[in-house]
Specification:
The complex is a heterodimer of chains A (about 260) and B (about 500). Chain A has about 260 residues and is an all-alpha fold. Chain A contains 9 helices and no strands. The radius of gyration of chain A is 23 Å and the shape is elongated. Chain A starts with a helix and ends in an 8-residue tail after the last helix. The model of chain A is unreliable at about 190-200 and about 255-260 (pLDDT under 50). Chain B is about 65% helix and about 0% strand. Chain B is built from 22 helices and 2 strands. Chain B has a two-stranded antiparallel ribbon with strand order 1-2. In chain B, helix 4 (about 85-95) packs across helix 7. Classes of the chains: A mainly alpha (about 260), B mainly alpha (about 500). The interface between A and B is large, with 130 and 135 residues. Chain A: It comes from Xanthoceras sorbifolium. Chain A: It holds the Pfam family SPX. Chain A: This is SPX domain-containing protein.
Chain lengths: ~260, ~500
């Protein structure tokens, strides 16, 4: 139940509005157990066929759920992305050096706000990609279980279908993520280079309390744990995850000075 | 007999669906008394057949969902409820995407659904369950999709992807499903056609649902697209967006036009640009009306519902940025404010943001890597499966020719089996070689798979180099398994 536990952890830690949008892994597992515990079914028998139908039906429902949620979020992201771009343009146009009301302090203040928004926006998008991935992983696992327990051949064709679903084709969101990173690098590059080390501690304490950041840290750690080596290793298993700077992530994990929730 | 486990599963399913499942899967729901068979006879067979063909054809298509053209991609199965005509629905939904193909689709879609569910066995629990899941009801799909036929130009590329993308696109076949009486055929199809199966199930079940709700057809099922087109204007008020994804949120009501359709549109930046253009032309976010924007955008498949909801989101984002992301944002913002007030210098904020950004970037990177690996794995599995099937068909040919010989048949089949296994191993090794330039992790997986040619049914220990070839041969299909076992 390792994945199940991890998934639950992730669901607990995720943004509240997302909690019920994840895969119902536990229940699907129960269903698989139920199906496999009924007397051995001949392949092609009606019971088997019906059971598989039921299972597939549920999976499809889950997929629908993912798709709906994902696309809604994606739409919001598209809008917000554009908004942020426009805000930047406006601030530059008004408070920038050549603007209508040039003002360094105003410029800095507004840009500061925009920057914070961009970083949070970036985080939220990454969390959505994580959402997509963890649900996919769950589906792959449950299908593997199903085939193993019932001797079915559902996994391969079904997963091919899943691969094409909107919730898994996250290219657009990834693209927006990269664009955010570029925006931050280009627009905000100038402001960041002072006394980093000294302030790092306090920064860590502060940021780990914030919702989105906390979630991304949690997501990263969860991912690491899920990928820490499979007990049923096969050619369909992912290799263990190797994070280059895992200690950074670990250090961020703990403190939660501002209680969220 | 089998009704009971089914009902158990159904209740479990229902709970799953409602997300309120607390694991009470064993409680069985009362079986609703609408047997499948009753609904079946209603649909003409021709529809079902075409549907079936359609569904089969789908797995073959594999265009990407995200279209590269002007953002008007994807297709939406409108899930407006109300139209009882199952056939219509099924035919309609595929239509939208590909206008050129719509005529074909409508017919095929109806047929596709048919073969599946119709079995002689009383699938009562199933039908009742599907009626529970009104959300999936195909009834809601059809009406919306109908008008789509009229308006959409040929959009063939989307067609298949659409069809596939809507995993629950029982839309098409759902109606047809209920009509089918040939349960046995459906069972056969299950075994042979996995791809179609997955979609068919959905259709089947959702179809049952729909037929339960709307036994009568809104209008006779025409065999020609033209007649469908004719009917559509009467039925639909909205066009399902063609560039969206099918989100079949079903409203099971029987009122044809009043149910708010919720087909989901996949908004791309380009589409959004066009939207913003239109809005600006109309005087800005506050003054623009959905209808005006819709007209100005001239995007096929876009419905006024899409525009309306998008406009709402847009307004929220512009004029009330805090509320766009929902309550959690609101909650977070004051906390963030407090923390920033506590910070003495802007440097700390900067540092905090930088750190946050680092972690987020890291996570994203890892997610991308993981996703690529997952895609690779499945690709590999598919390849191996294909290889195996090729070998298998080769073996079949050999066997059939060798069966002409009387005596040496047994030893020759053994020899054939051996050589087959050998060539499969070789094939997989060649496959390995090709991929050896990839990351080490993928490589190790490939080595594992060389022993098993994509066998995903075996346990881990078997993955380790077994000497015999039977695990290799016994891939994902059961018959070869049996054969190879007897062989060794």
């Amino acid at each position: 139940m390792k994945f199940g536990k991890r998934l639950n952890q992730q669901v607990q830690e995720t943004l509240p509005g997302w909690r019920d949008k994840f895969l119902s892994y536990k229940n699907l597992k129960k269903l698989v157990k139920l199906i496999s515990s009924t007397p051995p079914l001949l392949n092609g028998s009606l019971e088997y066929v019906k059971a598989e139908a039921e299972f597939v039906y549920l999976l499809n429902n889950e997929i629908d759920k993912f798709n709906a949620f994902f696309m809604e979020q994606e739409e919001d992201f598209v809008i917000k992305h554009k908004e942020l771009q426009q805000r930047i343009q406006r601030v530059i146009a008004i408070y920038g050096a050549n603007g209508s009301q040039p003002s360094v302090t105003e410029y800095k203040e507004e840009m500061g706000k925009i920057k914070k928004d961009i970083v949070n926006f970036h985080g939220e998008m990454v969390l959505l990609v994580n959402y997509s991935n963890i649900n996919y992983t769950g589906l792959a696992k449950i299908l593997k279980k199903y085939d193993k327990r019932t001797g079915g051949l559902l996994r391969l064709p079904f997963i091919q279908k899943v691969l094409k679903q909107p919730f898994f084709t996250t290219e657009l969101v990834s693209k927006l993520v990269k664009e955010c990173e570029n925006t931050i690098d280009s627009v905000f590059a100038v402001q960041e280079i002072e006394e980093e080390k000294k302030e790092r501690r306090e920064a860590i304490t502060v940021t780990s309390g914030e919702g989105i950041f906390r979630n991304t840290v949690a997501a990263l750690l969860t991912m690491q744990e899920i990928r820490s080596g499979s007990s049923t290793y096969s050619q369909f298993s992912l290799p263990p995850l190797n994070l280059p700077d895992s200690e950074v992530v670990q250090s961020v994990q703990l403190n939660s000075p501002i209680a969220i929730l | 007999m089998e009704a009971r486990p089914l009902s158990i599963q159904r209740s479990g399913a229902r709970q799953l669906n409602n997300l309120g499942v607390s694991g009470a899967m064993s409680s069985s729901l009362p079986v609703l008394p609408t047997p499948l068979e009753e609904t079946y006879p209603k649909l003409p067979d021709s529809r079902q057949i075409s549907m079936e063909r359609e569904v089969r054809a789908r797995p073959a298509a594999h265009t990407t969902l995200v279209p590269s053209n002007s953002g008007v991609v994807g297709h939406i199965f409108s899930s407006s409820s109300g139209f009882s005509s199952d056939l219509q629905y099924s035919s309609v939904s595929p239509h939208e995407k590909h206008s050129g193909k719509t005529p074909y689709i409508s017919q095929s879609s109806t047929n596709a659904a048919l073969p599946l569910p119709q079995s002689s066995h009383s699938n009562k629990p199933q039908s009742t369950t599907s009626s529970h899941y009104t959300k999936e009801s195909s009834s809601s799909w059809c009406p919306e999709s109908l008008p789509g036929i009229i308006d959409f130009p040929t959009n063939t590329t989307l067609h298949n992807s659409q069809l596939e993308s809507s995993s629950c696109s029982g839309v098409m076949s759902s109606e047809d499903f209920s009509k089918r009486n040939d349960w046995q055929d459906w069972a056969d199809q299950l075994i042979t056609d996995d791809d179609a199966l997955a979609t068919n199930w959905n259709e089947l079940l959702s179809d049952n649902n729909m037929t339960d709700l709307e036994p009568k057809m809104a209008y006779p099922v025409p065999n020609t697209p033209a007649s469908i087109l004719v009917h559509q204007p009467q039925v639909q008020q909205q066009l399902p967006a063609s560039s969206g994804e099918i989100r079949n949120v079903v409203t099971p009501s029987s009122s044809a036009n009043s149910a708010p359709a919720k087909p989901r549109m996949r908004w791309t930046p380009e589409l959004h640009e066009a939207f913003v253009e239109a809005v600006n032309q109309l005087g800005g976010g506050e003054r623009a009306t959905p209808k005006g924007v819709l007209k100005l955008m001239k995007v096929e498949g876009l419905t006024i519902y899409h525009v309306k909801s998008h406009l709402q989101k847009y307004r929220t984002a512009r004029y009330r940025p805090d509320s766009l992301e929902g309550s959690e944002e609101k909650r977070l913002t004051p906390l963030e404010e407090i923390s920033s007030l506590d910070l003495k210098t802007g440097i700390e904020i900067t540092e905090a943001l930088r750190l946050q950004m680092e972690v987020q970037k890291r996570l994203h990177e890892q997610l991308e890597i993981q996703r690529n690996l997952q895609l690779r794995i499945e690709e590999q599995g598919r390849y191996l499966q294909m290889m195996f099937e090729k070998q298998k068909s080769g073996l079949d040919k050999l066997k059939s020719s060798s069966s002409n010989l009387e005596n040496p048949s047994t030893p020759s089949s053994d020899a054939i089996q051996d050589s087959l296994a050998k060539s499969e191993r070789e094939g997989s090794q060649v496959d390995q070689g090709k991929k050896r330039s990839d990351t080490v992790s993928v490589n190790s997986m490939l080595e594992g798979s060389s022993q098993e040619l994509g066998n995903n049914n075996q346990k881990a220990p078997e993955t380790e180099a077994p000497e015999g070839s039977e695990p290799n041969v016994s891939e994902s299909s059961l018959q070869p398994t049996k054969r190879s076992r007897t062989d060794k």
